[in-house]
Amino acid sequence: MSDVAAVRELVPAPGGSLDWAAIVDEVDILAPLATTPQQPEYHGEGDVLTHTRMACEVMVDLPDYAQADPDGRLVLFYATLFHDLGKTACLVVEDGRISSAGHGRVGAIDARHWLWQAEVPFDLRERICRLVRHHMEPFYAVAGNRQGDTPEYVVRTLSWELSVREIAALAEADARGRICADMDESVAAVELFREVAQDEGCYDTEYPYADPHTRLVYCRRRGAISVDHPFYGKPGSHVVVMSGMPASGKNTWVAQHLPDLPVVSFDDAIAELGLTHGRNTGAAAHLVTDRARGYLRERTDFVWNATHLSSRIRARTLDLLYAYDAHVEIVYLESPEPVIKRRNSTRDTTLSNAALDQMLRRWEVPVPAEAHQVRYEPDIP
User: Fold this and answer.
1) Is 371 in contact with 328 (CB distance < 8 Å)?
2) Do the Cβ atoms of 264 and 305 come closer than 8 Å?
3) What is the CA radius of gyration of the chain?
4) What DSSP assignment string belongs to 304-329?
5) 55 assigned to some structural domain
6) DSSP symbol at 201
7) Cβ contacts of residue 216 below 8 Å, gap of 6+?
8) How many angstroms separate the Cα of 331 from the Cα of each of 114, 128, 262, 274, 366?
9) Alpha carbons 132 and 114: distance in angstroms, whole number
10) N or C, where is the chain less crowded by C-beta within 10 Å?
11) Does any domain span residue 168?
12) Enclosing domain of residue 366
């Protein structure tokens, strides 16, 4: 496993050459890509690792790479290096055709784990992972994605999660770093994506929604409201939703910052019912949900304390809260891996470190579109 100094050392200078042997040796998670095939009509170069190298060679020659500061070049380079990391796990061969649907989401999780272990700073790591997660978006923003979103909706929402300029650069490197017949069409799609973002005023900054509630409703309803005026929000509970790995300091944070608010906690419910993590926990989930509903009906402010580690798990909680017109603030906590595992192994819990490792396969850090406010507080001592 690399450390952050080694990670930085591999980043090429603008217009420079890649030390590909050193990169593959140091970044061990790339190895399976060498034997992962791709559909020949879109990737005549063959395996995913070859395409990755070609895309990285294109990236270091792009103007956006040359104009970026050292942190920006690190982000662009590693986003390109990891953009197809999920293709191995998502590989499907059916009737002679090769596909890898969902590889952006899976690749972002794998990249996050590797970069976390390498102690890459949180902000840089998440910039990389968000680019990996959404790297296919520019190709379909104008032509139309599976959800039928408008191009304006795509660029507006993306602008709150990542740099639109950076994802456009990644998409261009991805398009040009392959052997195919549709390269001109793909590059043109990226250029149209850039033009839409520039027209919307969010190519280099976040789209200026009227207020956080308007932004939240616009994102959740996939653009089905006007953003010309603030969207009215009914009064409801203010709910602080905790998110983070087990032993990341959530209980301590709540005790220090919100000691007077009632708390609903999945771990507390498990202990109260005498259950074991990972086994027969449905009763605990029902208990937590019932208590939360009670607070929501009374419009009482409270804390929902759970790991909420994946976007799908968080969505269950958030859907319930928004159904009761709650104002939601997500607080995400994180500590280095050795700290997490040391704490977990010494506390009174039925969750083993091996089970914690399994949880990391679903690890998705909250993004701004999920709540009225998202606070990131990594490396809590």
Assistant:
1) yes
2) yes
3) 22
4) EES---SHHHHHHHHHHHHHTT-EEE
5) yes
6) T
7) 369, 371, 372
8) 23, 21, 16, 28, 9
9) 13
10) C
11) yes
12) 238-378
Q: What is the pLDDT of residue 277?
A: 64
Q: Residue 238: beta bridge partners?
A: 327
- Greatest Cα pair distance in the chain: 63
Q: Are 176 and 125 within 8 A, CB to CB?
A: no
The answer to whether residues 242 and 194 belong to one domain is no
Beta partners for 331?
Answer: 242, 375
Tens digit of each residue's pLDDT (9 = 90 or more) over 266-321? 877 877 777 666 665 678 788 899 999 999 999 999 999 999 999 999 999 999 99
- Return d(Cα 69, Cα 337) in angstroms, integer: 28
Phi-psi bin for 335: left (phi > 0), alpha (psi -120 to 50), beta?
A: beta
| 20: its two tokens | 């590909």
For residue 329, the Cα-to-chain-centroid distance in whole angstroms is 18
The conformation of residue 94, written as its DSSP 8-state character, comes to E
For residue 253, what is the domain's CATH number? 3.40.50.300
Pull the structure tokens for residue 219: 């994102």
Q: Is 205 exposed, middle or buried (0-12, 13-18, 19+ CB in 10 A)?
A: exposed
